[in-house]
UniProtKB/TrEMBL annotation:
InterPro entries listed in its UniProt record: YgfZ/GCV_T_CS, YgfZ/GcvT
Protein name: Folate-binding protein
Gene Ontology biological process terms in this record: iron-sulfur cluster assembly
Superkingdom as given in the UniProt entry: Bacteria
Organism annotation: Halomonas alimentaria
Length: 344
C-alpha cells in the first residue's frame, strides 16, 4: 500500500509513519499548504445487496444518513460496548460502503464482521490498492479542485465519484483527505507537490490531536467505551437508531452518566514522545489515565491525547517523567447528534 509513495521519495519510519526530507514539517504546516501520504489509514469495503442492512446492525451510524454526501464517524463494538474500531463511513455507490480506519485494525475488524456477514449478501474487502492523500492549509480546497477536479465538501461530508472520493476533516487548519487508486495517486502526487510542500504523515496526526480526534489502534482494541474518546461529542454515535452490537451498553453509559474516563488534550514539557498506553501519573505516582496518541508540534514539544479519570481535581500530572499540561478541546463534551450534522 505504501510502495507508490516510497517510489516518489518518501522514507518509511514505521508501519504507519512515513517522512520526507522536509525541514520542520509541523512548522511549515502553520503557514504553507502541505501534502502528505496518510499511511496510518486503511480501507475496508462492504459491498452487496444487504450492505446497508448489515452495517445498520453493526455500526453506531444511522445508515440511511450515509447517502453519498454525509460521511459520518462511526464505531464498531463488542456486546459489552467496548470499541473494536472507530471509522469514517461513506457510500461509494448503491450497495457499496467504505470504511476509513487505522490500518492496524482493518484485518481484525474484517474478521469480526465476517462472523455476521455469512447471514447477509455482502462481501468484505481490504482495499490495499487504494491510496490516501491528505492536504492541509488555506490553499487545500483550491488545490484539490484544480488537481483532482473535485469541489471540496463540508466537514464530515464527501464529494467525488466511484473512483476518487474527497473528505473534509476538522482541525486548526483546513484539511482534506483524498481516496484514489494507487495508479492515479502516482500521477497526481507530483502535481500536488508542485504547489504544496510534501510532509510526513506525522503532521496529519498532530492535527488530529489538536482536533481532539483519536483513531483507535490495536493497543486499545476492546478496552474503551466510545464515550471515552468523546465519540458522541464528535457526532459518531446515533442515539436515535435501532439496535446494533453493543448499543445497549453505549446508550446506558450515556443516559445514566456512567462515563468515568474521557479523552483530553495535552502538551508535555519536553520533546520525548511517550509510548501509546503510557500511564498518566498524579503526584502520588498513581495511574489516572493513559496515552492514546502523541506527536511533536511545531515547537518540538510533545502533544498528546490521553484518556483521564473524570474526577474534577486530580492535581498535577506527568507522563514518562514529563509534566503534562491539559489544553482545551476544540469542542464541548456533549452529545452531538449525527442527524444534525447530516442536515448542515
Amino acid at each position: 500500500m505504501q510502495d507508490w509513495i516510497t517510489e516518489l521519495g518518501a522514507r518509511t519510519l514505521a508501519d504507519d509513519h512515513i517522512t520526507f526530507d522536509t525541514q520542520d514539517a509541523a512548522r511549515q504546516a502553520l503557514d504553507a499548504t502541505v501534502v502528505t501520504p496518510l499511511l496510518q489509514f486503511g480501507v475496508l469495503d462492504v459491498v452487496g445487496a444487504d450492505a446497508e442492512k448489515f452495517l445498520q446492525g453493526q455500526a453506531s451510524a444511522q445508515l440511511n444518513l450515509v447517502d453519498g454526501d454525509f460521511a459520518p464517524l462511526t464505531v464498531f463494538c463488542t456486546p459489552k460496548g467496548r470499541m473494536l474500531a472507530n471509522a469514517q463511513l461513506l457510500r461509494v455507490a448503491e450497495g457499496h460502503y467504505r470504511l476509513i480506519l487505522h490500518r492496524d485494525l482493518v484485518d481484525s475488524l474484517a474478521d469480526h464482521l465476517k462472523k455476521f456477514a455469512v447471514f447477509y449478501k455482502v462481501q468484505l474487502t481490504a482495499r490495499d490498492d487504494l491510496a490516501l492523500i491528505g492536504l492541509i492549509g488555506q490553499e487545500a480546497s483550491a488545490l484539490a479542485e484544480v488537481r483532482l477536479d473535485i469541489a471540496p465538501p463540508a466537514i464530515w461530508h464527501q464529494a467525488g465519484d466511484a473512483e476518487t472520493q474527497l473528505l473534509a476533516h476538522p482541525g486548526p487548519r483546513p484539511r482534506l483527505l483524498a481516496i484514489l487508486p494507487t495508479e492515479r495517486a502516482t500521477e497526481v502526487w507530483p502535481t500536488l507537490a508542485e504547489q504544496a510542500t510534501p510532509a510526513g504523515n506525522a503532521v496529519w496526526c498532530l492535527h488530529d490531536i489538536q482536533a481532539g480526534l483519536a483513531w483507535l489502534t490495536s493497543h486499545h482494541r476492546d478496552a474503551l467505551l466510545p464515550q471515552m474518546i468523546n465519540w458522541e461529542a464528535l457526532g459518531g454515535i446515533s442515539f436515535k437508531k435501532g439496535c446494533y452490537t453493543g448499543q445497549e451498553v453505549v446508550a446506558r453509559a450515556h443516559f445514566r452518566g456512567q462515563v468515568k474516563r474521557r479523552l483530553m488534550r495535552g502538551q508535555l514539557d519536553g520533546s520525548v514522545l511517550p509510548e501509546i498506553g503510557s500511564p498518566v501519573l498524579d503526584t502520588n505516582d498513581k495511574a489516572v489515565g493513559e496515552v492514546i496518541t502523541t506527536e511533536l508540534d511545531a515547537y518540538d514539544q510533545a502533544e498528546v491525547l490521553v484518556v483521564l479519570s473524570t474526577k474534577e481535581d486530580i492535581g498535577p500530572l506527568s507522563v514518562a517523567g514529563q509534566k503534562l499540561k491539559l489544553l482545551q478541546l476544540p469542542y464541548p463534551i456533549e452529545r452531538l447528534d449525527p442527524e444534525s450534522l447530516a442536515a448542515s
